[in-house]
Each structure stands twice: as structure tokens, then as C-alpha cells.
Amino acid sequence: MSTAHPVAGRASALNQVWASPLYRGATIALFLSGLGTSAAAPQIVSFLVRELDASLPLAGLYYLTSLAGPVAGYLIGAYSDRTGGRLNLFRLCAIAGFIGWAGVAVSTAIWLPFVISTLILAFSGAAASQIFAAVHDEQVRHPGAANDSVVAIIRMALTAGWVVGPVLGAWLGAELGLRAMLWATAICFLAQIIPLGTMNPRAPAKAAAGGEKSSGPGLAAMLPLLAFTGLFVLVYAGEPIKYGFLLIYMEEQLKLEPAIRGAVIGIQPFIELLIMPFSVVLGRKFGAVRLMAAAALLAAAANLCFAAWGDVFGMFAGQILMGGVWGIFMVLGIIVAQRLLPNAVATASAIFMSSTALASALGGVAGGLGVAGLGLPSVFYIPAALALLAAIGLAIMARAVPAAGQGA
Asked: Is the pTM of this model over 0.85?
């Protein structure tokens, strides 16, 4: 276990990120990715309803198109592991994002965004996973004690984009219209290419060749990764339920003012950014997956706050707890995923990162059925139960799978 002082470790990691064109470019690119994606995500249903005259139930089905994301991510990741050309694939995925969001912005028929999201935007989601695979390759070539902290800083940039994006998207949608907002998202995806320039480092020899690589990892080798990703999906499924119904609950039943509702939503990413720099150190001390099991328990507690603590303090408490959850998961998750499939890190990165799409679909269905059967706020007992199951599974995995249970 590393005994390096946390502050010194973070300073060293910051120096590495600043000094390396790859790390620096990856940080900027992921910020732009988070900025563009999060600007559009809360507004897409409004766009379908207001601009294309879709009904609310039909617009809600748009999120099911995200189920194509894990399939596209796996295909991109597997091809990346066979060829070793991470950043060229990243550029193609970023261009797909530009074409896809531009296509949605000019759509005049309701079916077009559904087709575009399924066939084009599904591949754009693999761009970030290729960046993390390229970063992993660089760290294999240049091992260092601060490497995990470098990953944490780069991952923080993606979260920072998600902090700014919803605010920017709401402003653009109100001032310039929803189509202009979608064009801004398209431009963000294309702009990701600029910080990384023409760099195209190849994967180390072990990652670019070898008998296992030529045919890809077998199912048995992937089982720990798939199990870990499935447990992550159980935790993340609470997010679409929360974003779908928490604002409605605060407005219609708790009668909170708009500024208070905005503060409740905004405090989670703020706490998340505060926690992220320390998650690697805590993972080294307690074990990465063991720490994520504890974070899953926090997610269960957060959803219990939403379900049973019916005032503004309960809403803030739940969101603060969720900030702790994602401050841990969003840094350690990608690190553990790559360690569970070390000979196919692009595949591991793509499977893990694209699983949020699967979780969104699962959460959307569970939330829709739950709110119909249980109502508000009792629907939040569903993600609480899912997070509790994930906590149990992660605790078992920390003991059963050495590669997962080791420190960060």
C-alpha cells in the first residue's frame, strides 16, 4: 500500500497532467464531452415534445434508444483492443457525435431522433472510453505512483463538464431555442478532437497483439467485469428515477421555490468534485471495491431520504449523500474495470462506461412502473433496494475477486 502523502500525490499528478500532451488533451476533451452531453440530456424530452409534437409517453421512450450504447461500446472496444489505435477510434466516435446531434437538431419528423440515437449516437458514447484506454496505455509505458491520481483528475474533468452543462443548456434553450442548444452539443463533440491534435500513440505490444487479443477475451475472462458492471448498473439506475421525479416531487408536493430546487440538484456534483481527489487515497487504504460497497450503502440511504424525509432538509441530505456516492464510483469504477480485464482495457472501458445507458433504460422503466404503482415519493424505495443489492454484491466481490478487491 502506498504511503505517499495525499497532498503531495495530488500535486505530482497535477504536474503530470499539465506536462503530458496526452493527459492534458484528454482532460480538456472529457470536459467538452461532459459539457455537451449534459447540456442536451435534460432538454431532449422537451425538444421532442415542443419541436416535434411528440406525446410525453412517446418522448419518454427515447431513453430506450440508449440500449444500443453498450452494444456499440463493446464493438468499438473490441476493435480497439485488436488494432491498438485508440485515438483514431476516439476521433471517429467524436465525429459520429457531431453528425448525430446535428441530425437531431435539424430533425423535422419524430422518428428521426430515435433512429439517429440508435444508429449514430450509440457509437459517439464510446469516445470517452477510448480516451481512458489511451491513458491506460500511456501509464503502462510509464508506470508511476501517481498514475491513479492522474486518472482521477482526468475523470474529474468529465464531471466538471456535467456541472456546467445543464446550466449552459438551460440558458441556450431559453435564449436561443432548443435546436440551437443541440447544435452547441454537436459542436462540443467535434471540438473534443482539437485538444488531442494528431496524436495517435499505439497500445503497448501486449495490448495490441497476442493470441488472446486476436479473438478477444472469452466469456469466462469477462465474467468478473460483467458482474462488477452489473452491480454498478443497479446503483446508477437510481439516477434516471431521481432526475425524472425528484424535481416534480419538490415542486408539486413539497412546494419548494425554483431557487431551492436548483440548489438541491446542484449540490450533488459540487460534493462529487470535492470527494473525487480523495477517492484514490481511500481506495488504497480500504480497497477499491470495498469502498464502492460502502458507497452503494450511501446510495441506499440517499434514496431513503428522498422517500421518507419529506422536507427540504431531506432533499439536501439525499443529494449530499449521492455526491459522495459518485465521487467514489466515477473515479474508482474505471480503474477497477480495467484491472478486471487487463489484456483488453479498451473493451473493459467501453463496457463499463456504456453501461450507464443500460442503467438509464432500466431506471426509466423501473421509475415509470414504480411511480404508477407506488406514487411519489415512495417510488424512491425502488432505487434504495437496488443500491442495497449492489452493496451486498460488491462486498462479496471484494472478497471473492482479488483483482477487484485490491487497493486503487
From this structure: no
